[in-house]
Amino acid sequence: MERSRAGSDINKNKAMVEQLKTYGVITSEKVADVIESIDRALFVPDGNVPYYDSPMPIGYNVTISAPHMHATCLQLLEENLQPGMHALDVGSGTGYLTACFALMVGPQGCVVGVEHIPELVSSSIQNIQKGAAAPLLKEGSLSVHVGDGRLGWPEHAPYDAIHVGAAAPEIPQALVDQLKLGGRMVIPVGTIFQELKVIDKNLDGSLSIRDEISVRYVPLTSRDVQLQGV
Ligand SMILES: C[S@@+](CC[C@H](N)C(=O)[O-])C[C@H]1O[C@@H](n2cnc3c(N)ncnc32)[C@H](O)[C@@H]1O
């Protein structure tokens, strides 16, 4: 019974990838492989349809982002998620994208998730332990921490790739400082109207910033404000 349920879920995850390819969201084989190997059902709370292309509530007034947004961010960061590189996932939530990043950079790389809700950090670790990135968590190349992601995670900086999973009113300077020369950050910026910004740190330290798409994310804020639902 359990085996056949798991088998059909894997097929549904694969079907989700095929659909994202059909719609042109996924064009990279590497990104397709990674999304296919991390079953989304392990990260979406029971009672939701994990493969449906929509954000889903995960408690604490926040959501797991939609599959097309995860795929878009992975594609935007692909060149900066090569084996051995360092990546930071701010607002790591369920740990889904953190696990995908870890598969991209492999055991010689380093991926850090930072999330300010301790309960989400605990559940994300449990989620990751059930899937393909579990060995990387065990070996220590992947770690998830409780913290204010607006401050980044200096210990493993500088990062080749920084992803921010919540919308900042402005680009946090600490994250810019922790981006490597040649590194890329993908971050939603704005309040009511938000743009997904792609920020490249050039080799001379200057920044090239462009807007990728308009988006709607929960805010990058303090824990108290988030829990009040303001
Ligand atoms: C839209 S959710 C996305 C989570 C994750 N990317 C996923 O898909 O599961 C945004 C996350 O950012 C977290 N967050 C918001 N502000 C934060 C902050 N200042 N520091 C760390 N995490 C924060 C929220 O708790 C939430 O888990």
Summary tags:
single chain; 230 residues; alpha/beta; Rossmann fold; seven-stranded mixed beta sheet; two-stranded antiparallel sheet; 8 helices; globular; disordered N terminus; binds S-adenosylmethionine; Protein-L-isoaspartate O-methyltransferase; S-adenosyl-L-methionine; PCMT; SAM-dependent_MTases_sf
Structure description:
The structure is a single chain. The chain contains 8 helices and 9 strands. The protein has 230 residues and is α/β, with parallel strands linked by helices. It has one domain (2-228): Vaccinia Virus protein VP39 (Rossmann fold, 3-Layer(aba) Sandwich). β7 (179-190) and β8 (194-201) form a beta hairpin. The longest helix is centred in the N-terminal third of the chain and has 21 residues, at 2-22. Residues 60, 62-65, 91-94, 96-97, 114-117, 120, 148-150, 165-166, 217-218, 220-221, 226 line the site of S-adenosylmethionine. S-adenosylmethionine is lined by residues 60, 62-65, 91-94, 96-97, 114-117, 120, 148-150, 165-166, 217-218, 220-221, 226.
What does the secondary structure layout of this molecule look like, with pairings?
Blueprint: H1 2-22, H2 29-37, E1 56-59, E2 62-64, H3 67-77, E3 86-90, H4 96-105, E4 110-115, H5 118-129, H6 134-139, E5 142-146, E6 159-164, H7 173-177, E7 179-190, E8 194-201, E9 207-215, H8 223-228
Parallel strand pairs: 3-4, 3-6, 4-5, 6-7
Antiparallel strand pairs: 1-2, 7-8, 8-9
Q: In short, what is this structure?
A:
By secondary structure, the chain is an alpha/beta fold. 35% of the residues lie in helices and 25% in strands. A hairpin with a 5-residue loop joins β8 and β9.
